[in-house]
Amino acid sequence: MFPSDQVRQVVDHTRRAARPGRRSVVPAIQQLPRLQLFPSEDLAFRRVVDVAYASLCADAAARGRSIDPQQLQSRLRDRYPAAVVRRREAIADPGPDDVLWYVYRFGSVTPGWRWWEEPGHAWAVFDDERRFVEVSTSLTHIVEAPREALLDRPLEAFSNPADVSVPEDAAGVWEELRRRGEVHSTLRFRRLDGTPREIEYHLTRDGAGPGRHLAIVREIEPR
Question: Which residues contact 60 (CB under 8 A, 6 or more apart)?
Answer without folding.
Answer: 25, 29, 66, 67, 71
